[in-house]
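Narrative summary of target 7.
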Amino acid sequence: MALLQAEDIKAYYSVRKGYVKAVDGLDLVIEKGITVGLAGESGCGKTTLVNTLMMNVKPPLFLVEGTIILDGKVISKMDRSTLKKNVWGVLASIVPQSALNALMPTKRILDFVRDVISHHMDVSDSEVVSMAEKRFEELNLPVEALSLYPHELSGGMKQRAVIAVSTLLNPKLLVVDEPTSALDVSTQKQVLKILMDLKTTGITESMIFVTHDIAVLRQIADWIVIMYAGKIVESGSTENILHDPEHPYTYCLINAVVTPEPEVRKRGLTSIRGEPPNLLDPPKGCRFHPRCPKVMNICRSKEPVLVEIGGSRLVSCHLFPPDA
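Modeled conformation, tokenized:
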């Protein structure tokens, strides 16, 4: 059963020269109980997409078109005050890309807890403290951190504290945007373990894990969605995507990442030629065609559509025509 459904999402940034089409005609379904890995190069629209799915949209970003349904509620039609009261923190919560710098330095961690709970519950301060301590203990975090300021915490502890605060009210969907990008390998493992524990303990039902590091998704994702230039180019189970990528971009993206497999060491690394397109004026046809090693004439003029090629696997490429 779907927890989140997004249909024909177009989210553009309004700039002086026109509109940056950061998310352009995208459909996405997040099933209950799974972790979806959202991957792609920097600038492909991942952060814009997850902010739009949360309806955390404000100028210069606009939801131009589309419908977003979360847990049966059409949140794309809600105003910001309704979202704050009935959606954010309760149905869905986000750990932003800038989480390490998102905490106001003059507030203690417990103050952030009070802010989150006060929007949704009328409880005494002792109950707030009790809820916070319980969540920190559940995630094996020291409760002493609640009385500290952000600058008194290490980067890893700060990230884990943000995750704990974001999940205080057990949101059904948790979005984590590049949570391990600024951390060392040891701390990355600790953060990934906390995120996996959130699901096994029932603190959250489903998760969207945003990253440009395909290797990380091997450890946490059940399903992978690959984005390029504001569009989904491929999606499927983690095993299928990583071991049998069908879209040329997916193949190039995976082969550009260092992984421990013997076959990777044998063949070495490859790079993706060229640069991502300017989304003020994206290429006609397939947006990947200027960089694609398998480009055909049709790719330069006709935009491919997402087609199912078996096992719920979706690919948007002229190598897989809809009528095949």
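The chain has one domain: 2-316.
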